[in-house]
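Tokens as discussed.
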């Protein structure tokens, strides 16, 4: 597990940890850095990898030998079942708060976020306030994220390097999966292979990301990970009037959809559109029993509001859609079965509004590639 935290002044990049509260039998040392963005200078950003850790185990830890703050985390299970929370376009609004409260009650093992975290949009102190907002949850469970358009923060000439804050603060395990960029990576957890893709970096067939994805998909062992889940930010399928015709959706789909289809990816989660939509299994614009299910979950609580207008008539492949804030839960029960539920925020109460049982493509003889 990588532990990340920020101190306003110089402090040791050390995490002390153990399986009993207050008893730190192990320690690990990492690195620290800071970044500048126009007139803003960040605090010291510390990243420390602890472990190896036992699966499905509670650990207690403290950062920089700070005796005033003790944290606890639970590692994911080594085998199925496992429960994911998925939420996109989170932001920092009242709706964000209620979404986080609902997530806190869900007893999940890992959170997956398909982009648009803080909605800092060049205002760097908003990255700090976002960190404080999610700290109670992100300190307890692994939060695995990919980037969205609000993470780019590139200003021509003035600040020409994109993703400065995102890459400094949210360091993901890209090197471990053979990736050369923090913007795309993969990992295995329990019986699931999860692929985090970058909608806002190069994805054409000559790109590093495309070639990395080809290799990553080719190395998957469905005996060990019978489920494959992919996350993108800009959805490839979308019947909302918002975010139609964008190259991050259309061109990425054009280049990469066939790779995911041939690898029999089970589910593709996306954000970007501030509403919820679930599609049937689909490939190349048509229902296909061997294609992935596409789910848009960009309704975490952003400040831009909901995308309430859908195209009419509804496309035949779109099964359920609703413009409400909320979050989703994917419980992978075993090698063949999983249940997906979408919880909308109705008057600040978590209401299950959509639910479906899924079967893995690896268990479907008709989809053996």
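Sequence:
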């Amino acid at each position: 597990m990588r532990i990340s935290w920020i101190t306003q002044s110089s402090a040791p990049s050390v995490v002390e940890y153990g399986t009993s509260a207050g008893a730190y039998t192990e320690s690990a040392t990492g690195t620290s850095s800071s970044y500048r963005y126009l007139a803003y200078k960040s605090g010291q950003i510390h990243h420390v990898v602890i472990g190896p850790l036992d699966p499905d185990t509670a650990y207690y830890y403290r950062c920089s030998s700070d005796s005033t703050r003790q944290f606890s985390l639970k590692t994911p299970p080594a085998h199925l079942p496992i429960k994911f929370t998925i939420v996109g376009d989170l932001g920092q609004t009242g709706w964000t708060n209620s979404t986080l409260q609902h997530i806190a009650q869900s007893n999940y093992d890992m959170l997956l976020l398909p982009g648009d975290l803080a909605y800092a949009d060049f205002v760097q102190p908003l990255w700090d306030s976002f960190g404080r907002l999610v700290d109670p949850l992100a300190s307890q469970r692994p939060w695995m994220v990919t980037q969205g358009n609000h993470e780019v923060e590139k200003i021509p000439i003035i600040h020409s390097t994109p993703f400065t804050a995102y890459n400094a603060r949210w360091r993901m395990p890209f090197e471990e999966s053979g990736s050369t960029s923090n913007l795309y990576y993969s990992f295995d957890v329990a019986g699931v292979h999860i692929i985090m893709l970058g909608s806002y970096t190069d994805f054409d067939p000559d790109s590093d990301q495309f070639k990395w994805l080809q290799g990553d998909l080719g190395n998957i062992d469905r005996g060990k990970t019978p489920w494959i889940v992919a996350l993108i930010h800009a959805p490839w399928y979308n019947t909302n009037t918002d975010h139609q015709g964008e190259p991050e959706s259309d061109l990425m789909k054009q280049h990469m959809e066939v790779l995911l289809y041939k690898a029999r990816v089970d589910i593709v989660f996306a954000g970007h559109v501030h509403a919820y939509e679930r599609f049937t299994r689909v490939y190349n614009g048509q229902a296909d029993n061997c294609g992935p299910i596409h789910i848009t979950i960009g309704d975490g609580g952003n400040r831009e509001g909901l995308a309430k207008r859908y195209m009419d008539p509804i496309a035949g492949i779109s099964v359920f859609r609703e413009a409400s804030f909320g979050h989703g839960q994917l419980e992978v029960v075993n090698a063949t079965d999983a249940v997906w539920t979408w919880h909308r925020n109705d008057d600040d109460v978590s209401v299950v509004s959509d639910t479906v049982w899924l079967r893995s493509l690896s268990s479907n003889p008709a989809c053996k590639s």
